[in-house]
Amino acid sequence: MKILFLSIITAVVLGAFVASYFIKKEQENNIGNKFLRLIRKFDSWQMLR
Q: In which domain of life is the source organism classified (predicted)?
């Protein structure tokens, strides 16, 4: 019973770490995309001048 409980707790904690890793990776990617979009807008604005 104790081993089952510990294994379930370990699995839940491991799942939380994996989920937070993928969420963090996706947010960093999203920030990179926003930065690239800003640079493109700035470039197009420079072309208009």
A: Bacteria
